[in-house]
Specification:
heterodimer; A: alpha/beta; Fumarate Reductase Iron-sulfur Protein, Chain B, domain 2; Rossmann fold; 6-stranded parallel β-sheet; 4-stranded mixed β-sheet; B: alpha/beta; 5-stranded parallel β-sheet; 5 helices; 11 strands; globular; binds iron/sulfur cluster; Lactate utilization protein (chain B); LUD_dom (chain B)
Chain lengths: 458, 188
């Protein structure tokens, strides 16, 4: 179930969809999170006001990013924090490696960071002899399984407890056949305690970087970020340029929504703020671009940088829930993954892993216009002549058909006719991988056009 | 730094028009802050001891010590049976840590805990955590909390809402992930 850069979303989804009961189970687990989110959002009378503020704060930040980044840098330095800048993933990894090598680090404990996934940091460091231990339980599970994350908040959501049990039995010596989540979590706690206590350095992602304080905010439920950074002397925090917030007032608005929108909790268990290194220690912040400034040069794509990575749009997405996180070619799956990864998608297919239902935009705490951005990606692909196989053939035809009223009406009635007379086996290949495990719609006897003609236009 | 300058000059080419910072003006819900706090703390799996006193906390600590447990107290007026070790790693066998919280937030059950000595890991590495907060330091929401909290240059702090937890295996909630496995809050 690993990423394959050449397989399209539909081809990958086809693999996931073969096991129908697993698809249903996956979809339900995510929908449960959506329901919890609805309850949490509903319990805050000012929820919509918060979303509006969240959107405006992020827009203000993105449109003043150069100033705020420099303010953040200066304040960090005044607090004894060393700040580094990386144009891309490669530079990021080099900077990290250089810091770790200087301290002869053999073992690095890491808490969840989608950015280090985006930069492919783990393999880079491992090739250079540094052991990287992911410490978030879900991340540790997929690391031991040799898989990429399938969700940005719950990375092992695609795995069943029995599978985790077998994996832990093999890798960390839990009892054979044991699959109780509490037992497995306790075993992981013991296993990871040893890692925390023997680590030479720790690294985390950043949820927010507070410009006027020169501090980073890191949120975890498990406490793994804090267990990590507070034991060894060296701590590193990697952040995209989009993680800046002007001040703590802004952070408060986003913190009120982040966990509520992610899992339905009133707040994440630990929202920690680091405003300088520990006594005798070193603290590094690495600010990464990796395509973000380019996104800011497109008015529509720019808004995807308002995202605070709550995962809400994944949980609600009908395509994500039924195709699984591994069906997307980009590290981040789901609607936000399409928005920020669409330009890097060499399969030219993920912008079509979307029904444009806009459920994602409706739940987003910072009002990222996801459906608009995804639609925009389709246009960009079409303009670049990168329509996915199949679509490239019929899209120009669609254009011609739509342009000619008579031809359009004819073809629609032909399709309705075909649905009625041709056997499914003949038609289904035209419905793509989706159709394989779905029934084709029942053809209406008469179209709206026919009905209108017969009833209204005498 | 080439990276820095290039990123900053690329930002000058942004397509977005400047947007002002919005005014954050949200009316706090001031009704029964202690009640709100208690409900939300329970929701995040913490336990509240209302109308507590330091004597009561000391009694609790005494009973824990009598059970043979290792207790470290950083709260003035409460004494445990352990003192601060030389390295943070030596805190690994602390059963209970007693620490004071600076603020408690009614809307979500979180408590702001500042860095109180050189071992920042204390509230996270202990098996169980007891936080002592003055009832007068209860605020309605996060907007109020961030205007009041202390975060000195060179230090750290954390909002702690309940014991550590995870739902990473099939979405079933397990309390006790990497941080403390239980949280008791004493409002004094
Ligand atoms: S786009 Fe919005 S809903 Fe999706 S992860 Fe980002 S903040 Fe959450």
């Amino acid at each position: 179930m690993s990423h394959s850069s050449s397989a399209t979303h539909a081809q990958q989804a086809e693999i996931f969809c073969r096991d129908e009961s697993r698809v249903d189970w996956h979809s339900k687990a995510l929908w449960l999170m959506r329901e919890k989110r609805d309850r949490a959002a509903g319990s805050i009378p000012e929820w919509e006001q918060l979303r509006q503020l969240g959107s405006e704060i992020k827009l203000h930040t993105l449109t003043n990013l150069a100033d705020l980044l420099q303010q953040f840098e200066a304040n960090c330095q005044a607090n004894g924090i060393q700040v580094h800048w990386a144009r891309d993933g490669k530079e990021h990894n080099q900077i990290v490696h250089e810091i770790l090598a200087r301290h002869q680090v053999k073992k690095l404990v890491k808490s969840k960071s989608m950015l280090t996934e985006e930069c492919h940091m783990n393999p880079y460091l491992e090739e250079r002899g540094i052991e990287v231990i992911d410490t978030d339980l879900g991340e540790r599970i997929i690391q031991l399984a040799g898989q990429p994350p399938s969700h940005i908040v719950v990375p092992a959501i695609h795995m069943k407890k029995e599978e985790v049990g077998d994996l832990f039995h093999e890798k960390i010596g839990t009892e054979a056949g044991a699959s109780d989540p509490t037992y497995l979590t306790r075993a992981a706690r013991q296993h990871l305690r040893e890692q925390f206590l023997s680590a030479d350095a720790a690294m985390t992602g950043v949820n927010m970087a507070v410009a006027d304080k020169g501090a980073v905010v890191v949120c975890t439920n498990e406490g793994n970020a804090d267990m990590g950074v507070n034991l060894p002397a060296v701590q590193l925090h990697s952040m995209g340029i989009d993680k800046i917030v002007p001040n703590l007032d802004s952070a408060a608005v986003l913190l009120r929504m982040l966990a509520r929108n992610a899992t339905g909790q009133p707040v994440t268990t630990y929202s920690s703020m680091y405003r300088g290194p520990k006594a005798g220690g070193e603290m590094h912040v690495i600010i990464v671009d990796n395509g973000r400034t380019a996104m800011l040069q497109d008015k529509i794509l720019a808004e995807s940088l308002k995202c605070i990575r709550c995962g809400g749009c994944l949980n609600t997405c009908p395509v994500y829930r039924r195709s699984g996180g591994h069906s997307y070619s980009y590290t981040i799956p789901g609607p936000i993954g399409i928005a920020v990864g669409g330009s890097k998608d060499d399969t030219n297919s993920i912008p079509w892993a979307c029904t444009l239902c806009a459920s994602c935009s409706g739940v987003c705490p910072t009002k990222v216009p996801l459906d608009k951005i995804i639609h925009h990606h389709r246009r960009l692909k079409a303009e670049a002549g990168q329509l996915p196989y199949g679509k490239a053939n019929y899209m120009p035809l669609v254009g011609k058909l739509m342009g000619s009223q008579t031809a359009f009406n004819c073809s629609m009635s032909m399709a309705r006719g075909a649905l009625k007379i041709l056997p499914g086996s003949l038609l289904k290949p035209f419905a793509g991988a989706w159709g394989k495990y779905r029934e084709l719609p029942v053809a209406p006897k008469s179209s709206f056009e026919h009905w209108y003609k017969n009833n209204r236009s005498e | 730094m080439p990276g820095r300058n290039e990123i900053l000059s690329a930002l000058a080419k942004s397509a977005l028009d400047k947007q002002p910072m919005p005014v954050i003006d949200i009316a706090p819900n001031m009704q029964d802050l202690t009640g709100q706090f208690e409900t939300n703390l329970a929701m995040v799996a913490g336990t509240l001891h209302r109308d507590a006193t330091l004597e009561l906390v000391q009694e609790k600590v005494n009973s824990l010590i009598a059970e043979g447990l290792q207790v470290l107290s950083l709260v003035e007026g409460v004494t445990g049976n352990r003192t601060l070790p030389a390295t943070p790693h030596e805190l690994k066998d602390i059963d209970y840590a007693v620490i004071s919280g600076e603020l408690a937030v009614a809307e979500n059950g979180a408590i702001w805990v500042t860095e109180q000595h050189q071992h920042r890991v204390t509230p996270f590495i202990c098996e169980n955590l007891l936080l002592v907060v003055a009832e007068e330091d209860l605020v309605a929401n996060m907007h109020q909390a961030v205007t009041k909290l202390t975060l000195e240059s060179g230090s750290c702090g954390a909002f702690i809402a309940g014991p550590s937890k995870t739902a990473d295996i099939e979405q079933s909630l397990v309390v006790g992930a990497h941080g403390a496995c239980s949280l008791g809050v004493y409002l004094v």
